[in-house]
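Write out the 3D structure for:
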Amino acid sequence: MKIRIKFAKEGTMKFIGHLDMMRYFQKIMRRADVDICYSTGFSPHQIMSFAAPLGVGMESRGEYVDIEVKSTDSSEEMLRRINEVMVDGSEVLSYRALPDDASNAMSIVSAADYRLRFREGYEPEDWRDFMDGLLSFMKQEQILILKKTKKSEKEVDIRPMIYELHEEENHAIFLNVATGSSANLKPSAVIQAYMDSRNLPLSEFALMITRLEVYAPKKEDPSTLIPLEEFGEDIK
């Protein structure tokens, strides 16, 4: 049986990298007595796949990991058991059964929501001027940035990868951008591009970023994106 787990990563847990989160969840599965499946071979490992690695320093209320289990209790019971052994800053939000033919989360992710705020001491001097300028900046047909690879640099148009941007309360910015293997855009790159257009610096510590949700195309209608947890159902 395939299971999709949605979890939050907040507080000091945001400094834990992706590989360490994988090892953390492997331990959590054992401590919560999850009847997880293991691969065959000389060195068996838990069958587990994460949707989209989160950058170190980012918080999230929309992380996902897919697992395979031999048996399971109800979603309510599994949430209780797993959360009992999790540390502060991590919390399982949903535990849902997937159809047998469901693709793993990593292969279908295509977009994600983010909320961005400036840390105290790094805020724009004039928020209204900053935000109006950003909204105007987004009206361009092209937003070119220089993207560095291991071997070279190339100019990339990131405008098609920005699906939505708007202002939220308390000087926050909402972003929905491309996320996944085919196209992937860091939310900080959008603000960096805007600041560069104004010849203003952006400290690497200036932004606080929270991932809110991750989306994939609906099977019946690929043009419609839905949260990853909606591909599964609660277990009664």
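Residues 217 and 223 are 6 Å apart (CA to CA).
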